[in-house]
Amino acid sequence: QTSMKNMERELVCPVCKEMYKQPLALPCTHNVCHVCASEVLLQHGHLYCDPTSEPTSPAATPSTRSPRLGRRAVPKPDRLDRLLKSGFGTYPGRKRGAVHPQTVSFPCPACRRDVDLGERGLGSLFRNLTLERVVERYRQTINISAAIMCQFCKPPQLEATKGCTECKSSFCNECFKLYHPWGTQKAQHEPTPPTLTFRPKGLMCPEHKEEVTHYCKTCQRLVCQLCRVRRTHTSHKITPVLSAYQALREKLTKSLAYILSSQDTVQTQIAELEETVKHTEV
User: What phi and psi values does residue 111 have, to the nearest 5 degrees?
Assistant: First the structure.
Protein backbone atom coordinates (compact mmCIF):
# COMPACT_ATOMS: atom_id res chain seq x y z
CA GLN A 1 0.00 0.00 0.00
CA THR A 2 2.84 2.41 0.91
CA SER A 3 4.76 1.61 -2.28
CA MET A 4 1.61 2.25 -4.37
CA LYS A 5 1.15 5.62 -2.69
CA ASN A 6 4.79 6.51 -3.35
CA MET A 7 4.35 5.55 -7.00
CA GLU A 8 1.20 7.64 -7.26
CA ARG A 9 3.13 10.69 -6.03
CA GLU A 10 5.54 10.23 -8.95
CA LEU A 11 2.64 10.26 -11.41
CA VAL A 12 1.13 13.56 -10.21
CA CYS A 13 1.55 16.81 -12.18
CA PRO A 14 3.26 19.52 -10.07
CA VAL A 15 0.81 22.16 -11.36
CA CYS A 16 -2.70 20.65 -11.12
CA LYS A 17 -1.76 18.03 -8.46
CA GLU A 18 -3.63 15.37 -10.45
CA MET A 19 -2.34 12.44 -12.52
CA TYR A 20 -0.65 13.49 -15.75
CA LYS A 21 -2.79 14.05 -18.84
CA GLN A 22 -0.83 14.28 -22.11
CA PRO A 23 2.47 14.98 -20.25
CA LEU A 24 5.18 17.03 -22.00
CA ALA A 25 8.85 16.40 -21.18
CA LEU A 26 10.70 19.63 -20.27
CA PRO A 27 14.44 20.10 -21.03
CA CYS A 28 15.14 19.85 -17.25
CA THR A 29 13.76 16.23 -17.41
CA HIS A 30 10.62 17.11 -15.41
CA ASN A 31 7.12 16.67 -16.82
CA VAL A 32 3.96 18.77 -16.91
CA CYS A 33 0.45 18.30 -18.35
CA HIS A 34 -0.11 19.83 -21.79
CA VAL A 35 -3.00 22.03 -20.60
CA CYS A 36 -1.13 23.04 -17.41
CA ALA A 37 1.95 24.09 -19.42
CA SER A 38 -0.12 26.27 -21.74
CA GLU A 39 -1.88 27.89 -18.76
CA VAL A 40 1.47 28.66 -17.09
CA LEU A 41 2.72 30.35 -20.29
CA LEU A 42 -0.54 32.29 -20.56
CA GLN A 43 -0.16 33.56 -16.97
CA HIS A 44 3.36 34.78 -17.80
CA GLY A 45 2.12 36.89 -20.70
CA HIS A 46 2.79 34.52 -23.60
CA LEU A 47 0.34 33.83 -26.38
CA TYR A 48 -0.48 30.15 -26.63
CA CYS A 49 -0.41 28.43 -29.96
CA ASP A 50 -1.59 24.83 -30.26
CA PRO A 51 1.41 22.65 -31.12
CA THR A 52 -0.83 20.65 -33.45
CA SER A 53 -0.80 23.64 -35.81
CA GLU A 54 2.91 23.00 -36.45
CA PRO A 55 3.21 19.74 -38.47
CA THR A 56 6.95 19.40 -37.69
CA SER A 57 6.46 19.68 -33.95
CA PRO A 58 7.71 16.59 -32.09
CA ALA A 59 4.68 16.89 -29.80
CA ALA A 60 2.31 16.81 -32.74
CA THR A 61 3.38 13.91 -34.91
CA PRO A 62 0.46 11.84 -36.29
CA SER A 63 1.25 8.97 -33.90
CA THR A 64 1.22 11.14 -30.79
CA ARG A 65 -1.33 13.86 -31.53
CA SER A 66 -4.16 13.90 -29.04
CA PRO A 67 -7.55 13.09 -30.64
CA ARG A 68 -9.16 15.71 -28.35
CA LEU A 69 -7.29 18.58 -30.00
CA GLY A 70 -8.64 19.51 -33.41
CA ARG A 71 -6.33 19.85 -36.41
CA ARG A 72 -5.92 23.40 -37.67
CA ALA A 73 -5.39 24.42 -41.26
CA VAL A 74 -1.89 25.74 -41.98
CA PRO A 75 -2.09 29.47 -42.89
CA LYS A 76 -1.12 30.51 -46.40
CA PRO A 77 2.26 32.31 -46.87
CA ASP A 78 0.67 35.74 -47.47
CA ARG A 79 -1.58 35.25 -44.42
CA LEU A 80 1.51 34.25 -42.41
CA ASP A 81 3.36 37.42 -43.44
CA ARG A 82 0.41 39.59 -42.43
CA LEU A 83 0.24 37.87 -39.03
CA LEU A 84 3.95 38.41 -38.42
CA LYS A 85 3.79 42.07 -39.42
CA SER A 86 0.73 42.68 -37.26
CA GLY A 87 2.60 41.35 -34.23
CA PHE A 88 0.50 38.24 -33.60
CA GLY A 89 2.99 35.39 -33.37
CA THR A 90 2.53 31.93 -34.76
CA TYR A 91 5.03 30.55 -32.27
CA PRO A 92 3.86 28.77 -29.11
CA GLY A 93 4.46 31.00 -26.12
CA ARG A 94 5.14 34.17 -28.05
CA LYS A 95 5.00 37.41 -26.03
CA ARG A 96 1.92 39.54 -26.67
CA GLY A 97 2.62 42.24 -29.20
CA ALA A 98 6.12 40.94 -30.04
CA VAL A 99 7.06 41.55 -33.69
CA HIS A 100 10.03 39.17 -33.85
CA PRO A 101 10.16 35.61 -32.50
CA GLN A 102 11.96 35.21 -29.21
CA THR A 103 13.01 32.38 -26.99
CA VAL A 104 10.41 31.30 -24.46
CA SER A 105 11.36 30.86 -20.81
CA PHE A 106 9.21 28.35 -18.92
CA PRO A 107 9.24 28.35 -15.07
CA CYS A 108 9.45 24.66 -14.15
CA PRO A 109 7.17 24.09 -11.12
CA ALA A 110 9.24 21.07 -9.98
CA CYS A 111 12.82 22.40 -9.90
CA ARG A 112 11.85 26.12 -9.69
CA ARG A 113 14.16 27.02 -12.58
CA ASP A 114 13.45 28.94 -15.77
CA VAL A 115 13.82 26.51 -18.65
CA ASP A 116 14.57 27.75 -22.19
CA LEU A 117 12.10 26.30 -24.71
CA GLY A 118 13.49 28.13 -27.74
CA GLU A 119 11.40 30.08 -30.26
CA ARG A 120 8.81 27.33 -30.74
CA GLY A 121 7.82 27.16 -27.07
CA LEU A 122 5.61 24.14 -26.37
CA GLY A 123 5.94 23.08 -30.01
CA SER A 124 9.54 22.06 -29.34
CA LEU A 125 8.60 19.64 -26.54
CA PHE A 126 8.08 15.90 -26.91
CA ARG A 127 5.03 14.23 -25.45
CA ASN A 128 6.16 11.71 -22.83
CA LEU A 129 4.33 8.66 -24.14
CA THR A 130 6.13 6.30 -21.75
CA LEU A 131 4.89 8.24 -18.71
CA GLU A 132 1.42 8.45 -20.27
CA ARG A 133 1.29 4.64 -20.60
CA VAL A 134 2.54 4.18 -17.01
CA VAL A 135 -0.26 6.45 -15.73
CA GLU A 136 -2.84 4.52 -17.75
CA ARG A 137 -1.58 1.15 -16.46
CA TYR A 138 -1.54 2.47 -12.89
CA ARG A 139 -5.17 3.56 -13.25
CA GLN A 140 -6.10 0.09 -14.53
CA THR A 141 -4.24 -1.56 -11.62
CA ILE A 142 -6.09 0.57 -9.08
CA ASN A 143 -9.45 -0.28 -10.71
CA ILE A 144 -8.69 -4.02 -10.68
CA SER A 145 -7.51 -4.03 -7.04
CA ALA A 146 -10.62 -2.14 -5.93
CA ALA A 147 -13.32 -3.96 -7.88
CA ILE A 148 -16.80 -2.44 -7.68
CA MET A 149 -19.61 -4.93 -7.14
CA CYS A 150 -23.15 -4.73 -8.50
CA GLN A 151 -25.47 -3.11 -5.95
CA PHE A 152 -28.56 -5.08 -7.05
CA CYS A 153 -27.34 -8.69 -7.47
CA LYS A 154 -28.50 -11.31 -5.00
CA PRO A 155 -25.57 -13.13 -3.30
CA PRO A 156 -23.14 -14.00 -4.73
CA GLN A 157 -22.74 -10.52 -6.19
CA LEU A 158 -21.26 -10.04 -9.66
CA GLU A 159 -18.70 -7.37 -10.50
CA ALA A 160 -20.25 -4.14 -11.78
CA THR A 161 -19.66 -3.33 -15.46
CA LYS A 162 -21.85 -0.23 -15.84
CA GLY A 163 -22.76 2.82 -13.79
CA CYS A 164 -25.72 5.19 -14.05
CA THR A 165 -25.33 8.83 -13.04
CA GLU A 166 -29.10 9.38 -12.90
CA CYS A 167 -29.69 6.31 -10.66
CA LYS A 168 -26.43 6.93 -8.72
CA SER A 169 -25.77 3.16 -8.79
CA SER A 170 -23.46 0.56 -10.35
CA PHE A 171 -24.84 -2.53 -12.13
CA CYS A 172 -23.73 -5.76 -13.76
CA ASN A 173 -24.92 -6.25 -17.35
CA GLU A 174 -28.06 -8.21 -16.44
CA CYS A 175 -29.13 -5.87 -13.61
CA PHE A 176 -28.58 -2.82 -15.81
CA LYS A 177 -31.01 -4.26 -18.39
CA LEU A 178 -33.46 -5.28 -15.64
CA TYR A 179 -33.57 -1.82 -14.01
CA HIS A 180 -33.58 0.05 -17.35
CA PRO A 181 -36.39 -1.74 -19.23
CA TRP A 182 -36.95 -0.89 -22.87
CA GLY A 183 -39.77 1.57 -23.55
CA THR A 184 -39.47 3.39 -20.19
CA GLN A 185 -37.88 6.72 -19.26
CA LYS A 186 -34.99 4.88 -17.57
CA ALA A 187 -34.07 3.28 -20.89
CA GLN A 188 -32.78 6.72 -21.93
CA HIS A 189 -30.13 6.69 -19.15
CA GLU A 190 -26.61 6.57 -20.58
CA PRO A 191 -24.29 3.93 -19.03
CA THR A 192 -21.00 5.17 -17.55
CA PRO A 193 -18.01 3.33 -16.01
CA PRO A 194 -18.89 1.88 -12.56
CA THR A 195 -17.89 3.96 -9.55
CA LEU A 196 -18.73 4.39 -5.86
CA THR A 197 -18.76 8.19 -5.97
CA PHE A 198 -21.18 9.56 -8.53
CA ARG A 199 -20.69 13.22 -9.41
CA PRO A 200 -23.52 15.26 -10.94
CA LYS A 201 -23.29 15.15 -14.71
CA GLY A 202 -21.67 18.43 -15.75
CA LEU A 203 -22.11 20.35 -18.99
CA MET A 204 -19.64 19.27 -21.68
CA CYS A 205 -17.83 21.43 -24.22
CA PRO A 206 -19.18 20.42 -27.68
CA GLU A 207 -15.79 21.12 -29.30
CA HIS A 208 -13.37 19.35 -26.94
CA LYS A 209 -15.72 16.97 -25.05
CA GLU A 210 -14.33 18.32 -21.74
CA GLU A 211 -16.39 19.52 -18.77
CA VAL A 212 -16.94 23.29 -18.86
CA THR A 213 -15.32 25.10 -15.94
CA HIS A 214 -15.40 28.81 -16.90
CA TYR A 215 -17.66 31.43 -18.49
CA CYS A 216 -16.44 33.92 -21.09
CA LYS A 217 -18.27 37.22 -20.51
CA THR A 218 -17.07 38.63 -23.83
CA CYS A 219 -18.45 35.72 -25.90
CA GLN A 220 -21.26 35.00 -23.40
CA ARG A 221 -20.60 31.24 -23.52
CA LEU A 222 -19.30 28.44 -21.30
CA VAL A 223 -15.74 27.29 -21.98
CA CYS A 224 -13.57 24.32 -20.93
CA GLN A 225 -9.88 24.39 -19.96
CA LEU A 226 -8.74 23.84 -23.56
CA CYS A 227 -11.03 26.62 -24.91
CA ARG A 228 -9.66 28.94 -22.25
CA VAL A 229 -6.03 28.73 -23.39
CA ARG A 230 -6.80 29.19 -27.09
CA ARG A 231 -5.94 32.49 -28.77
CA THR A 232 -9.68 33.02 -29.49
CA HIS A 233 -10.21 34.09 -25.86
CA THR A 234 -7.03 36.16 -25.45
CA SER A 235 -7.82 39.36 -23.44
CA HIS A 236 -11.43 38.18 -22.92
CA LYS A 237 -13.07 38.45 -19.50
CA ILE A 238 -13.23 34.86 -18.20
CA THR A 239 -14.56 33.91 -14.77
CA PRO A 240 -15.25 30.56 -13.04
CA VAL A 241 -18.69 29.08 -13.74
CA LEU A 242 -19.77 29.41 -10.09
CA SER A 243 -18.90 33.14 -9.96
CA ALA A 244 -20.72 33.81 -13.26
CA TYR A 245 -23.74 31.82 -12.03
CA GLN A 246 -23.93 33.74 -8.75
CA ALA A 247 -23.60 37.12 -10.52
CA LEU A 248 -26.32 36.27 -13.07
CA ARG A 249 -28.57 34.83 -10.37
CA GLU A 250 -28.23 37.99 -8.27
CA LYS A 251 -29.01 40.14 -11.31
CA LEU A 252 -32.10 38.07 -12.19
CA THR A 253 -33.29 38.08 -8.54
CA LYS A 254 -33.11 41.90 -8.44
CA SER A 255 -34.95 42.17 -11.78
CA LEU A 256 -37.64 39.76 -10.60
CA ALA A 257 -38.07 41.64 -7.30
CA TYR A 258 -38.47 44.93 -9.22
CA ILE A 259 -41.08 43.38 -11.52
CA LEU A 260 -43.06 41.92 -8.63
CA SER A 261 -42.97 45.21 -6.70
CA SER A 262 -44.28 47.04 -9.78
CA GLN A 263 -47.01 44.46 -10.41
CA ASP A 264 -49.68 46.23 -8.32
CA THR A 265 -48.97 49.55 -10.01
CA VAL A 266 -49.24 47.98 -13.47
CA GLN A 267 -52.52 46.22 -12.57
CA THR A 268 -53.97 49.53 -11.30
CA GLN A 269 -52.97 51.27 -14.54
CA ILE A 270 -54.56 48.47 -16.59
CA ALA A 271 -57.82 48.82 -14.64
CA GLU A 272 -57.80 52.60 -15.17
CA LEU A 273 -57.22 52.15 -18.92
CA GLU A 274 -60.10 49.65 -19.14
CA GLU A 275 -62.40 52.17 -17.40
CA THR A 276 -61.25 54.87 -19.81
CA VAL A 277 -61.99 52.59 -22.81
CA LYS A 278 -65.53 51.89 -21.47
CA HIS A 279 -66.12 55.58 -20.84
CA THR A 280 -64.93 56.45 -24.34
CA GLU A 281 -67.19 53.80 -25.91
CA VAL A 282 -70.21 55.19 -24.00
Answer: -100, 0
